[in-house]
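job 3f2a | input accepted
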Amino acid sequence: MKRSVLLYAFTLLVFGSGMAAILWFGSPATEPLSVPAPIAPDHTKNTWTKLPLLLLQLSLIIGFIKIFSALFRRFGQPRVVVEILAGIVLGPSILGYFWPASTAFLFPENSLPTLEMFSQLGLILFMFVVGLHVDINSVRQRANVAISISHTVIIFSFFLGVSSAWFLYPRFAGPSIEFLPFALFMGIAMSITAFPVLARIISERQLKDSPIGVLALTVAAIDDITAWCLLALVVAIAKSGPLTDALITLSLTIAHIGLMFYVVRPGINYWLQRNFNASSTDQDRTWMTMTILLIFLSALTTELIGIHALFGAFLAGVIMPKMPQLRQRAAERVEYVSELVLLPLFFALVGLRTRFDGLTSADLWWICAWITLVAITGKMVGGALAARLSGHATWREAWLLGALLNTRGLMEIIILTIGYELGILSTDIFTILVLMALITTVMTGPLVTLFTGRRQQVTGTFTPAAAAPSVSVASDKVPPFRNP
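job 3f2a | predicted structure (484 res):
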């Protein structure tokens, strides 16, 4: 316990001071280059009407994802990697390169606002499910160990991101973006762990009942909560401009969080205890109606406050009652709609925005390799060192934890898209960071296999593994992980 506290204090002092110095002295002397928007292709007249075009786009996206799933299933890659690759293939980097007219024919400019709205709706529902899987009680029970490791890794990764921003800002910041929001955003981009993807990988590799798997999930949950709070701060600064406006936005955000935890959550629990009957079909529909209404109202509130609607949806999931039957029911029904239909549209838009054909110079690829190395150093190396130096893991367990925390996946793509839409990121750095997110996520499966010896079979079943010891929730000391 003392080692964890000392490590946390050392990390906060050294890297926190470094970040503060970089942000205090401000941007480099050079202002960001005025990067012109990419020239849109000469769109030929598209004869599709809106509904048939939307149905065609949905069919193409879902069909490509299914084909890619069959191709990549044997490599043990998570679904999110397949979905991102399918979106990139449909975009200008692959399909548009070999068939230049495809962009105007399949994804004309006038159809993008419709795709954007549907994809945002899918993201809102998805973020609710992410929040639904965050168990606050579990986080509290393992707080001493998990918060120490999580915040040590976040501070270290954030420091590397802010330091990188010092060199990247003049060339890669969006037009008229100041150094502070760009630097903070790069810190967040380097600090993210994709909790939903990580949870799926841990479940597939039969690690969910092992101490190191439980620790990884708890650390990732704290990562997500911290990252979304930091993102709310960055969005408030980027949108509000003056510090007073940003402080007002943050004050309203804190008030909304307090309202959700101390008014809405007890109110829902009171109604469920007094009125709800799980066997009643009508009350089940009432429960789902209330759930959807809560998601949309919380998302609307945070959007009006000045931070992103996704934060409100995430918060709605976090405050849901801790009743396993109701939570599972809500998660399953919302996931079917978001992940199978609406969320794939998001990947189509990511593919349309990801311009690998724009990375034409060798120095851009060197920058991509450097950013990827920085990202891996921050999360994987930082996570391994934090776990080992705090005395809660052997070296093999520590590297396994670092490999799991290095998973970025969908959460990274969502945050990068927010930065791109706010104008914080230019097209080139957005593409580089998307590629970094793909590489770090693809690495996770092989590294987990390396450190555990557990391989996922092509059929989706798994080789038998020895049962891992249970973790006492009242204890902060994590028992050793037993490798089969």
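job 3f2a | Residues 37-45, 456-484 have pLDDT under 50 and may be disordered.
job 3f2a | closed
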